[in-house]
Amino acid sequence: MGKGRPRSVEKGVLGQSSSASSSSSSLKIPPAPVYYPNEEEFKDPLEFICKIRPEAEPYGICRIVPPKDWKPPFALDLESFTFPTKTQAIHQLQVRSAACDSKTFELEYNRFLEAHCGRKAKKRVVFEGEELDLCKLFNAVKRYGGYDKAVDQKKWGEVFRFVRPVGKISECAKHVLCQLYREHLYDYESYYNRLNQEGDKNYNRGMHKERKSEPHVDFSSSKRRRKNNLGERVEVEEGLDQICEQCNSGLHGEVMLLCDRCDKGWHIYCLSPPLKRIPPGNWYCLDCLNSEKDSFGFVPGKQYSVEAFKRVADRAKRKWFGSVSASRVQLEKKFWEIVEGSVGEVEVMYGSDLDTSVYGSGFPRVNDQKPPSIGVEVWDKYCATPWNLNNLPMLQGSMLRAVHNSIAGVMVPWLYIGMLFSSFCWHFEDHCFYSMNYLHWGEPKCWYSVPGSEAGAFEKVMRNSLPDLFDAQPDLLFQLVTMLNPSVLQEHDVPVYSVLQEAGNFVITFPRSYHGGFNFGLNCAEAVNFAPADWLPHGSFGAELYQLYHKAAVLSHEELLCVVAKSDFDSKVSPYLNKELRRIYDKEKTWRGRLWRNGIIRSSPMSPRKQPKYVGVEEDPTCIICQRFLHISAVVCRCRPSAFVCLEHWEHICECKPNKHRLTYRYTLAELNDLVLMTENQNSEEMKQTRNVRRQHLCTNELGALSKKVNGGHVTFAQLAEDWLLKSRKILQTPYTSDAYRDALKAAEQFLWAGSEMDPVRDMVKNLIEAQNWAEGVNDCLSKLALWSCHRNHEIEKVGMEHVNSLLGFNPLPCNEPGNLKLKVYEEEARLLIQEINSALSACSKVSIADWEALHSRACDSAIYVNESEKLLLKLSSVK
What we know:
Elements: E1 3-4, E2 34-35, H1 45-56, E3 61-64, E4 82-89, H2 102-117, E5 126-127, E6 130-131, H3 134-143, H4 147-152, H5 156-163, H6 171-184, H7 186-213, E7 223-227, E8 233-237, E9 256-258, E10 265-267, H8 286-290, E11 299-305, H9 306-321, H10 328-339, E12 347-355, H11 356-359, H12 376-384, E13 414-418, E14 423-427, E15 434-442, E16 445-450, H13 455-465, H14 467-472, H15 486-491, E17 497-501, E18 506-509, E19 514-519, E20 523-530, H16 536-549, H17 557-565, H18 574-597, E21 602-605, E22 633-637, E23 640-645, E24 661-665, H19 669-678, H20 684-701, E25 707-710, E26 713-716, H21 717-733, H22 738-752, H23 759-791, E27 799-800, H24 801-808, H25 819-842, H26 849-861, E28 864-865, H27 868-879
Parallel strand pairs: 2-3, 21-24, 27-28
Antiparallel strand pairs: 1-2, 3-18, 4-11, 4-12, 5-6, 7-8, 9-10, 12-13, 13-20, 14-19, 15-18, 15-20, 16-17, 16-19, 22-23, 22-24, 25-26
Helix pairs in contact: 3-5, 5-6, 17-18, 18-19, 19-20, 21-22, 21-23, 22-23, 23-25, 24-25, 25-26, 25-27, 26-27
GO cellular component, one term: chromatin
Domain JmjN: 32-73
Domain ARID: 99-193
C-alpha cells in the first residue's frame, strides 16, 4: 500500500505555486498522515480508506494525493457560473459576547440592587468617555470564569476586547475596567452564581427523592410557571391557552417555561437541549436571542460570478500581504490574530454549502452538458470514476446505497468557493459520517482536527473556554460558527493535528472527528459524506445525540439499519450491523416492557411500507418532543391521533391515563430478533436451529420474568399470556358472541409486540380472527337469507351457493356458531333444488311445460342463488 509518512507536497497537483504549503504550521501542530496510493490501490476508495483507517483514524483526518495521471476536468463553466455568498465576521468567531438583552439585564440588575443592596443603580457608568455596557462586561468576565479568575489569570486585556473591540489597550484602561466591575458587578456576580448553585442543589435533591419514592405526578394543574426578576418561581392562574411551540400541547403547564420577551411557551423537556428544571432569573427563547443585535451568525451576502469574487479575493490578499507570496506561518499567524480579536474587525465572504444539484458539480456528471473543451473519453472516464464525489455515497460497501433521498451534503455534494481567511468552524459531520473533500483548484486549505476518540475532551475545553456562549446557546457546536485556537486545546492536553490540502488533493475526516480550518486564498472545493460499514456504531451515537439535543436528524438511522439488514449485504458489514441491531433490540425490549408495566396494554402494527427496500422514500413520523424519527415504534393517544412520541417520552404526549395510549410498532421483538440472526453469517439451516434455541431461551429467561401489580398481587407477563390462552380456547368452544371475541383480541394486544415466546398467542389470535370472520360470515349470510325469505323482493341480491358452500366447507369448524346448523338447512334445500333441475335437464323430453314453470318458480323463490337456474330459464324459454 502506498503509505507515506506525514509530509507536505512541494508542488501543487495543478501546477500552482504552493509556497504557503512548504512551511510548517506556526502553531507547532503535528501533521496528519498523507497517503499516495498507486493506481491499483486507487481503484476503490472505500477499500483504500478501510486499509489506512487503523493508522489514520487516530488523527481524525488525513490527506490523499491521487496518482499523477488522475486529473479530472473542472466541469463548470467559470464564465457563466454564479453563486451566493455568506459574510463571515472572522474577528467574532471566538471573541464575541454572548447574545444578551441589555435592557432586560439592566432591569434585573436594578431589582437586585434594590432588593439586596438597598440602593438604585447609577444612571450611567462611563468608561473612556463612553457609556459602559454592563451586560456585555458581565458576560465577558463570565467567559474567563468570573472576577477572581480574571484577576488571577490577568485576563482584563481580553475582557477589554469584548467591551471595546477597536482601540488600543493600556494598562490603565485594564485597571479602570477591573475596578468598575469590582464596584458595580462583583456583588451581582456572587448573587448570580449562588442562585444557580442553589437551583442545581434543589434539582438534584428533588431527583434523589423522586427516584426513591417514584410518586405519581399530577399534570392536571391549569397553572403555568413564570419567574420574577429575582429568580423566584411565580405561578400564574391560567387556563389551557398556553401552547408549547414544539409539541403544540397546552398540557403539563407546571413545566411550561415562558420566554420573558415574546411570551411564547415551551415545556422544559421540549427545549433543544431539554432543561432539567425551571432556570432562575429571566429566560429567553432562541428566537429572541438570535434576533438580538448581539447575536452571531453568517449573514447572507451578494451573488457573485467567479471573476467578480476573484477580484474581491485578490484585493483582500493584497490588503494583508501586498504582492508578496505569504508563507503558511504568516497566514496562520495572521488568521489566529484576527480570530482572537487583536487585529480589529475583519469580514470576508464565502460561497459555502452550495447544493450541486442546483449550482452544478465540479466533477463531470452523466446528465450534465459536456463543455466543448473536454473530450468525450475524458468526460466519460471521470463521470464513472468512484472518486467522483457524486458517485461515492452509492458505491458498493456504502451504507447509504439504500437511501433514495437527495440529501444535500450527504447524498449530493456541496460546492465551496473560498477566499483568504474564509473559514469552516469546529464541527463534526451530521450523523458522525465520514467526509471527503476534494480541492478542484486554487490556493490551499488549512485543516485542524481532533480525533473522534477525544471528542469529549474537545467539548469540555470548548465549554470551559467559552462558558458565556454555551450558557446562551447550549447547542453551540451544532451552529458551526465558533473557532478556538488549537493551541488552547493543546494546552489542555487535547491532541490536535493539521493538514494542508492543495489543489488536486482529497481530505478525509473520520467519524466524530472535530475539524475546522480556513482558506489561504481563492479556491474551489467540493465535499460529500459517506458511510462504510465501520461507520454504523458512530451513526448510532449521532442519532442519540440528535435525540438528546432535540434536533431533527438527516435520516432515520433505525430505518437504515433495518433496510440494510434485509438486503444482500457484504460479510464485512455483518459484525457492525449485528451489534447495532442487538442494541436496538435490547432497547426496544426494555422500553416496551416498561410501557407494559406502566399500563400501556393496547398495541397495533404500523402500516406496511410501499417501498421497504429504500430509505427516505416514505418518511416516518417524528417524536413531538425530541424530533426522533419513529421507524420501529411509537406511542399515540386517541385524544391526539396525529401526535406521536418515542417510547422514552410516552409520559409527555398528553394527560390521559396510560390505558388510553397505544404502542404502535413496525417489528415485533421476534421480528427484530430475526433481523439480528440474519446478520450472523449463518446458513439457513443453522439460522433455523439457532432461532429455535433462542426462542426457548427468550421464553424462559427474558420477558417471562416481566411482572406488574394486578388486583393487589404481582403477575408475570408469561402468566398473563397463559391465562389469556386458556380463556381463548374456552371461547372457541362456547357459542359465538361478538363481544367475547372482541374483548379477547383487544386483550391480546398487550402480548403481540413481544418476542418469539408469544408465538402461541399470535397463533391463537389468527385462530380467533379466522373464527370471528367465519362466524360473522355465517351470521351475515343468514341475515341476507332471512331478509330475502321475508320480503321476496327480486331487487335484493341473493346469496350465491358458492358462498354458502365456502362457509360450510370448513373442517373442523373454526368455532361454535349455532347459526351454522340453520345455514345447513338452507344449503340442503338449495342442493335438492339443484338435483331436481339437473334431473329435469337430463330428461327434458319427458318434462312438461308446467313442470318447467314449477321448477323455475321454486328457483326464483329460493333464498340461495344457484347457477343452474340460468340453464333452467333458457330451457323454459325454448320449450315455450
